[in-house]
Amino acid sequence: MKEILRTTDPTIIPFSTALLRAEGIDCFVMDVHMSVLEGGIGLFPKRLLVAERDAFRARAILSDNDVEGLVRE
Predict the structure, then answer these.
(1) What is the CATH number of the domain that holds 26?
(2) Is the distance from CB of 67 to CB of 9 less than 8 angstroms?
(3) Which has the least CB within 10 A, 27, 52, 55, 58?
(4) Residue 73, in any domain of the structure
(5) pTM score, two decimals?
(6) Residue at 71 is within a domain
(7) Domain that holds residue 29
(8) What's the N-to-C CA distance of the chain in angstroms?
(9) What does 14-70 look like in DSSP terms, one character per residue?
(10) pLDDT at position 72
């Protein structure tokens, strides 16, 4: 798995997930339950991971849609 996105914005992860799944790219959100530890203040970023074979295409899709928080290699 390859990390392609890291953000504390709660709206970017669902939007990015929807974009990628619409293109047939499976993705996995990490650190979803960190809000329990932080008290819901948005201190810890959530990460979006995809398979290594899909990473280039996923970055291109998110970049084309002006998604902020992309992790560069």
Answers:
(1) 3.30.70.790
(2) no
(3) 52
(4) no
(5) 0.84
(6) no
(7) 2-64
(8) 13
(9) HHHHHHHHHTT--EEEESGGGHHHHTSS--SPEEEEE-GGGHHHHHHHHHHTT-S-B
(10) 78
